[in-house]
Amino acid sequence: SMGDLIVRAIQRGGDRIAFVLDEQQLSYRQFGELLSRFVQALKARGLKKGDAVAVLSSNRPEAFLGTAASYLMGLRITWMHPLGSEDDHAYLLEDSGVGTLFVDPGTFTERAHALKARLPSLNTVLGLGPSDFGDDILAEAARFAPAPLVAEAGPEDLCTLIYTGGTTGKPKGVVHTQRVHVTMVMAELAEWDWPAEVRFLAMTPITHAAGAMIVAVMLRSGTFVMNKGFDAERFFELVKRHRITATFLVPTMIYVLLDHPGLRAADLSSLQLIIYGASPMSPARLVEGMKVFGPVFMQLYGQSEAPNAVTVLRRIDHEPDAHPERLASCGRPIANSQVKLLDDDGNEVPAGEVGEICVRGPLVMKGYWNKPEETAKALRNGWLYTGDLARADADGFLYIVDRSKDMIISGGFNVYAREVEDALAAHPA
Q1: For residue 125, is pLDDT > 60?
Q2: Which of 15, 118, 299, 422 gives the lowest tally of CB atoms within 10 Å of its CB?
Q3: Which residues contact 65 (CB under 8 A, 6 or more apart)?
């Protein structure tokens, strides 16, 4: 289970620094003691395996306590997007049946009051620190003495409920078991180009992709440096101060760094790995990035239904001179999942033809929360249909051409927006 991985990572890490936020540092040993106290405090409040909890917080180590405790205890956790609206948050809490909400009082006091007043089903709102909307769970945890950590969840126990927006209707809750997340972490460890010494900088919310990398970093006894939001100058400062070796950025952030006047003076010599993903990246700007940062780029492709690790475009696959076309690829399938391009009837499309990326294996979600029709639509013929259309080349590299819902039909021909956008982005103007 993920709880087993957390316990192992804490034992391995010992007195190494696990988490950094501003001037705050926590060693693995300190985090383990904090986690033990936190788990005891939750149990004293009557929380037990199968209960539903949620976290609304900016990036801070204490926000990961809720996740780590859930992994250990077998709670079902929902991570709430820090930029979500009140309506979004209320819907997520109501739909997922959350009884206990952990809130960062430094950022979300007003939202906590609003949600508490709005949702009778929300039994308990707890502050990750002193607050006027609920009890301070960290203060409660401090009353307990550290005890050995025990992983109580099994591989098929429900682990997370992740909400994905999609393009139409209300967000759908993606149900993951502990097994899905263990598979994700093992794939990240086995398939990604981790530096020998991992000092990771997270400037995107740990409620999303960056947070799904924390346990992999911990198992490498690395240091996970957080920041509350993205800012180019702050990025340059933190990379230099902490000698950051790895980070995760979405393409828009990379564009901002490339266009920033402070880039030339920045000391980015420690950076060995920039993981990018979550949206398509312009090949023209990727080439520009490689000239500035060096051969440090690695792309991930996944989705909430098969998180973080369906395919990977490794650093050595980024070859602008020998294979410039591959810079438009999302890479090749990872080893522990089957990935094929299928048509609507479940048949594999001929080489070079466009088909829907379909995934089979232990990385795939259990289904959508209380949405049997949506689940049946996504999971059919034994495969997860991702909704992403792609073609494959002779070497097995996949090229996403569009979302199936976004394809344009003009004069009877299929027009893929991604290909038009890439052509436009390559123009000097």
Answers
A1: yes
A2: 15
A3: 34, 35, 38, 128
